[in-house]
Here is the input.
Amino acid sequence: MGKLFDELKKDILYQHGMNACLNCGVCTAVCPAAEFNDYSPREVMNTVQSECDEDIKELLKSDKIWYCGQCFSCKTRCPRGNSAASVILALRRLSIRHGYFAESEKGRQQLFAKRVFGQNMLDRGYTLLAKNISPAHFPELGENWEYYYEHMEEMRQWWDVPMDLENSPGSHRQIPEQDLDEIRAIYQKTGAIALMEAVEKAMEKKLGSKAEVEKYWQTWLETGDSRNYELKGENKS
Amino acid sequence: MNKNIVVIGGGVAGMAAAGKLREFGYEVTLIEKEKELGGNVKNWYKVFPDFTDAAEIINKLKGELKGIRVINNATVTQINGVAPNFEVITSTGEKIDAASILVATGFKPFNAALKEEYGYGIYNNSITSIELDAMLKQHQVQTASGKPPQKIAMIHCVGSRDQQVNNNYCSRVCCTNTVKVAIEIKEQIPDCEIYCLYMDIRVFGRGYEELYRTSQEKFGVQFIRGRLSEAGEKTDGSLLLRLEDTLTAKPMRLTVDMLVLMVGMVGNTELAEIADLKVGCDRFYTTAHEQYSNNNSEKKGIFLAGTATGPKAIMESITDGRSAAAEIAAFLHSFTLENMSCDLSFRQPFASMIAGGNQFCNTPPQPSPY
Ligand SMILES: Cc1cc2nc3c(=O)[nH]c(=O)nc-3n(C[C@H](O)[C@H](O)[C@H](O)COP(=O)(O)OP(=O)(O)OC[C@H]3O[C@@H](n4cnc5c(N)ncnc54)[C@H](O)[C@@H]3O)c2cc1C
Ligand code: SF4
Ligand code: SF4
Ligand code: SF4
Here is the structure.
C-alpha cells in the first residue's frame, strides 16, 4: 500500500465501486471496450486491488484507463457488486491530478475533452454543441449532417428550436448567465475546475511549452487526429 | 409431558433424524409437505462422489422409519406452548403434542430465471442441472430439437456467490455435481465436448478431488476459469456464450448446443414465523452457535438439521440429522433428570441413558446403536 492507493481509496467512486474482486472476468466478457482494445476491466480491478503503487502508477500512465466508454455494463453483472466503471472514473481523476495522463496518447486526449466538453459546460451549460461536430472530422455522419451543419441556423428556425435563444427548447439554447454562474460554482466547489486546470498544466509540462500545447490542439482541430502531432525528443512515448 | 417428537421435513436429514430417534426409542411423527418422502434427493439420479443411486439412499432411510407415523401432504401451521409441551397444529387440522420439534425443511433450488442473462426460460437449450439429472436418468440427454448435444457448457455458481441475486454464499455441492454429471454425460455421449465454466473449483469432500481428477484424466472434461457473462441464441438454437478465460486473460466466445446452469441452494425458511426461528443474512436458519450448537435453534426445544441451516451434501445432511437426534435425546433426557431432581450440572453420558431406559418411551428401549 502506498500514497497513490491511499489517495484513490479516498475517492467516493472508488469506495462505491470496489468491494473485492474475485477475478471472474464477467466484466471483461461483457465490456464493449475490451472487445476492440488492449483493455480489460478485470485487469484494472486486479491491479488496483493489489494496492501496489508501482503498478497503479503504470496504469495511470497507460492508455488503458481511457478506453472505457462508461456504459456501466460491468456494474450490472459483477457478482461482487463492484463497479469497474466507477473505479475507472476514480483512476482517471487520480491520473489527471498527478499529471500521469499526459504520458499516454489516449490520456492526452483529455485536452480535447477539457477544451470542448469542459469549456462548453462552463460557457453554455451543455457538453456538446452541434457546431462542434464538423463534417471534416466526422465524415461518417454523411451528407445529411453536412447539409445540416451548413444550414443549422435556418433549419433550427424551421423546427422552432432556434440557435442561441435564451431559455428556448433544444440543445442550442442560451442558458441565462445567472444560472450558468451556478453551474460554474458547482464545478468550482466539486473540484472539476481544478481538474481542468491540471489538464492544461500537465500538458504544458509534457509538451514543453504553452505554444506546443496550442500546436497540439491545432493539429487536432485541423486533422481530427492528435496522432498527427509528433512528440519531440525525450518526450516521445 | 408427552413422549412424541415432531420432525418437520422428510428429506434425507429429516428421515435420518426420525429413524435414529425411533431407534433411541422415541415416538416420532414425521410431517412432509409433499406426497413422497425424500426431499430434493428423490429427484436425483446417481449422486456424487460414488454414483450411488439416489433411490437406494432414500429406500435405506425409509427402511429405518418403521413404527413412525408419517403425515404426507401436510405442513405445520401453528406451534403452541413451550418445551417439553409443544402443541403442533398441522395444515390438515390435526393437533399433535410434542416434547421437542426438529425442523428439517431443507432448501429450494435457485430459480435460474432470475439470472436473465443466462437465458433460462427464454432459450430452449438453456437448462438447469436438475433438468439435466432427469435427462441422465432417462438416458436421454438431448437438445430441444431432440438431438444429442455435441458441445455442452456447464455454468458453475448459478445463484451462488453472486451479489446480484443477494446470495453471497457458496452452495458447496454444485462444483462436485458438475464433475459428476460431466462424467455421466461422457459415458452416455462419449464424443460430446464439455466445458465447465468456473470461478473456483470447490470439491471439498472425501473422494471429490479424485472425482474431479478422473473427469479430466479419463473423460477429458474441460475446465475454463471464467464466469459466464451472457448467452445469446443463434438461429439454429445453439447458444453463443461470452466469457473471459481469466487464466489466459482472453475474452472468448463459445458456441454450445446446450447450456447447463448449476443451480445453487436457497434457504427455505417458510416456518420462521410459525416456529419463531431466526434467519441469517444468507436466509438459512440461524443456529444457537455455529461451532458447538449447530443443531440447536435459539428457541428451547426446537432443533434444526440438514440444509435448513446451510448448504450440505447428502452424507453431511444425513449425519447432521442423526446428530440432531442425539441432541434431542440429550435435551429430553435433561427433563428426565429434572423430574428425578438430579443435579443438572452433571449430564450423564448418552449411553447410560439408553441402558437405563428412557421414561418418555412407550416402547421398550432399543439396543444402543453404538
Ligand atoms: C442440483 C443438486 C444436485 C445435488 N447432487 C448431490 C449429489 O450428487 N450428492 C450429494 O451428496 N448431494 C447432492 N446435492 C445435495 C442434496 O440434495 C442435499 O444434501 C439434500 O437434499 C439435503 O437434504 P435435506 O433433508 O436437508 O433437505 P431437502 O432435500 O430439501 O428436504 C427437505 C424436505 O422438507 C420438506 N419440507 C419443506 N418445507 C416443509 C414444510 N413447511 N412442512 C413440511 N415439509 C416441508 C420438503 O418437501 C422436503 O421433502 C445436490 C443438490 C443440488 C441442488
Ligand atoms: S463501463 Fe467501461 S469498463 Fe465497464 S463495461 Fe462499459 S466500457 Fe467496459
Ligand atoms: S465482474 Fe466483478 S468480481 Fe468479476 S472480475 Fe469484474 S470486478 Fe472482479
Ligand atoms: S460449490 Fe462450486 S459451483 Fe457451487 S457455489 Fe460453490 S464454487 Fe460455485
Q: What stands out?
A: Residues B 156-157, 160-161, 170-172, 174-175, 200, 202, 262, 264 surround iron/sulfur cluster (ligand 4) (CB under 6 Å). DSSP finds 15 helices and no strands in chain A. The interface with chain B takes residues 19, 22-31, 34-35, 40, 42-43, 76-81 of chain A (CB under 8 Å).
